[in-house]
Input
Amino acid sequence: MMILKNKIVLITGGASGIGAACAFNYVAEGATVVVIDKDATALQAMETQLGNAHLFINANVADNTDVETAIAQTLQTYGRLDAIHNNAGVASPAKPLEDTTEAEWDLLMNVNIRSIYYTTRHGISALKATKGCILNTSSLVGEIGQEQHAAYAGTKGAVNALTKAMALDYAAYGIRVNAVAPAGVWTPMLRQWNKEQADPSRMEQYLDQIHALGYCPEATEIASVCAFLLSDNARFVTGTIMPVSGGAELGYKRTL
Ligand SMILES: NC(=O)c1ccc[n+]([C@@H]2O[C@H](COP(=O)([O-])OP(=O)(O)OC[C@H]3O[C@@H](n4cnc5c(N)ncnc54)[C@H](O)[C@@H]3O)[C@@H](O)[C@H]2O)c1
Output
């Protein structure tokens, strides 16, 4: 049975990595998707594959007007909105805090956090009408931290706090708000982070080993959990930060 049949799902950063895997999976589960991304070429490639029953919007999630316009276009096209998946994110730089430039800091805060403020501000009335839901792509580092990645970890800690506070605020409207927290996932973002490390090939082995289940996953592993959290199967789940991490957070590792 398709678990997202007839749902209109808006996903940000949906043209690559975890977002693209989610968008394809949501469609496979019966949803119509609105894919927002700043990468016009990647959006075009997705539209070619998924077809024009879905919307593909070239927009910057850190820009208030872009987000307002994208949500207005969604409502004009479909007349409703059942879910917002705030997935767009940036992860660079891999540096300690004092070496992070103001421009890098601002980009991380604007794309990873401010965007959630904008999608909520412009999308919440539509979600109230459908008793819809919000899903945020967080990261395990928002809970446990990460060396040389303080500003990014700070944004994901904020995503976790927002998820819980928003879950409380919107529960009265029947709106659920959850987050997924992967550890590593093989996407263009992780490949970029890997390149910034001193010894990338050793780091690949490390990335397999940090996951207790023994491998660093592809984005499809995350997408199936996201579909569950958006679906009515998760109708009594709100305010949760769900690790999708192969047990990476569980404790001491055997080898490194
Ligand atoms: N890959 C991992 O190991 C990992 C682990 C934990 C959490 N995450 C989180 O997962 C989410 C997706 O990451 P990914 O690994 O798939 O990355 P990715 O770089 O492959 O994809 C991110 C997408 O977001 C888009 N994007 C970036 N800034 C944008 C903006 N301002 N406006 C619109 N679109 C924008 C990019 O164009 C890209 O298509 C992020 O929030 C990231 O922090 C990733």
Remarks:
- The pocket of nicotinamide-adenine-dinucleotide is lined by residues 12-13, 15-19, 37-39, 42, 60-62, 87-91, 111, 137, 139, 182, 184-185, 187-190 (CB under 6 Å).
- The chain has nine helices and seven strands.
- The longest strand covers residues 176-182.
